Amino acid sequence: MQLGDKLKAIRKAKGISLQKLSDITATIPEERISVSFLSDIENGRSNPSIDSLKIIANALDTPTSYFVEDSQNNTFGEAINDINFLPVIELLKDFNNWNIEDKQELLYYLKAKKVIRNTK
């Protein structure tokens, strides 16, 4: 998945318009990323600088690496390209702060779900 496709996917998954994303990037007026530039990025007509990419990633509360990593080398593999997986990533961001019982419960659920899927 290309950078522009990733940007569009995560923006849409979070329910943020191009205008809203542009507004969020304007914490410092000189750093505002224009709607037209965001659109150009999404449609593959432009590539952002690293600094601009960091501003966009911060505005989307997403690691900059999400946009530049090859999905095959990513912890989540190809799943990272699935818009339906993005909310899961959001929920797992604070996984290190979960208590051991909650971590085990999630693991048991995922293992049970895998067994059910494999028996269909």
TrEMBL record:
PROSITE patterns: HTH_CROC1. The keyword DNA-binding applies. It comes from the Bacteria. Transmembrane segments: none annotated. Residues 7-67 form the HTH cro/C1-type domain. Keywords: DNA-binding. Pfam families: HTH_3. The keyword DNA-binding applies. This is Helix-turn-helix domain-containing protein. It comes from Clostridium weizhouense.
